[in-house]
Amino acid sequence: MEHHPNTALAKFTSLQSTMELCEWNRRDEEVALLRELKEQDRKLQALLLKLDGTQSDYQIEAKLRNLIDYIDRETKPANMPTDDRDTFIRKVKTLNDDITTKRQAVENAITDSQTTRVAFAA
């Protein structure tokens, strides 16, 4: 099933709200994680904005779909239990790290595509 990128991004953003509502933003590691999540959110929004309305090649689309599907799947309530603080924080940290890797793969595909277009134009 294909998911809309903004819906997946909203689910990712809601993790920040969950941390704040549960007051799981008191420890130093949680404060740092929350800061990382906000930065990741900013980078994801910038990436989606960059791709919005542009014609992307298959490789970019596949990597973006992989990223969006991953976010959508991993942010489901069953995968993000809020009954245990440490488990939730650990899962969010892993999620954030994995998103970074997948986001960078999309960014690299964009760069590679642009480099290829420039090479063909020359």
Radius of gyration from CA coordinates: 16 Å
Number of strands: 0
| H and E string | HHHH
Mean pLDDT rating: 89
What is the first-to-last residue Cα distance? 40 Å
SS-based structural class?
mainly alpha
Task: Please give the share of residues in helix.
Answer: over 70%
**Tally of separate helices:** 4
For the report, how would you describe the main beta sheet?
Answer: none
Q: Strand fraction band?
A: under 5%
Any idea what the shape is? elongated
Low-confidence stretches: none
Describe the structure.
By secondary structure, the chain is an all-alpha fold. Helix content is about 80%, strand content about 0%. Helix 2 runs parallel beside helix 4.
Question: How do the helices and strands line up, and which of them pair or pack?
Answer:
Elements: H1 5-21, H2 28-51, H3 58-74, H4 85-121
Helix pairs in contact: 1-2, 1-3, 2-4, 3-4
Keyword list:
122 residues; mainly alpha
Can you describe this structure in just a few lines?
By secondary structure, the protein is mainly α. Helix content is 78%, strand content 0%.
